Amino acid sequence: MDTVTQQIEQFLAAPLFAVAGVSTNRNKYGNKVLRCYQQAGSNVIPVNNHADKIEGLDCINSVLDLPDEVISLSIITPPKITEQVVQQAVTKGIKNIWMQPGAQSEAAVQMCRNNGINIIADGSCLLVVLHYREAY
Q1: Is residue 69 part of a domain?
Q2: Does 55 reside within a domain?
Q3: pLDDT tens per residue, the chain (136 residues)?
């Protein structure tokens, strides 16, 4: 089994990322994670079926609608919603999922493991790993 560091490296090696649970509210973590990717210079797509644009980026309605180049997905949703998002990710062929603290559920983590998805759900936070700065 890979170490968490190796799992994070694999996740971050993707050419294009998506964020499920992204918010238009800049005070919410779903928005901060999106801006964190932007600060890092990463290509990222927000997944939100209630907004057309967030932080200047066009939103995608569903994980199922993401381009095939997206292989790494950050999830910032309540655990019950996370389970639905993971099911879509399995269907879509997403290879890496990072459940931000508070988004994880044991059923969603197990679904990832059962489908060979590199899963980060140990409490590691993308904002910490990528040195997010609120001033952005």
Answers
A1: yes
A2: yes
A3: 479 999 999 999 999 999 999 999 999 999 999 999 999 999 999 999 999 999 999 999 999 999 999 999 999 999 999 999 999 999 999 999 999 999 999 999 999 999 999 999 999 999 999 999 886 4
Residues 6+ apart with CB under 8 A from 116: none
- pTM, rounded to two decimals: 0.94
* Spacing of C-alpha 115 from chain mean position: 17
Is residue 135 included in any domain, yes or no?
no
Which tokens go with 89? Answer: 């990710």
In terms of Cβ atoms closer than 10 Å to its own Cβ (0-12, 13-18, 19+), residue 29 is buried
Does some domain include residue 134?
no
CA neighbor of 22 nearest in space, from 11, 36, 9: 36
Q: Residue 78 in contact with residue 103, Cβ under 8 Å?
A: yes
CATH code for position 115: 3.40.50.720
Number of structural domains, the chain? 1
Q: Which structural domain, as residue segments, surrounds residue 60?
A: 4-129
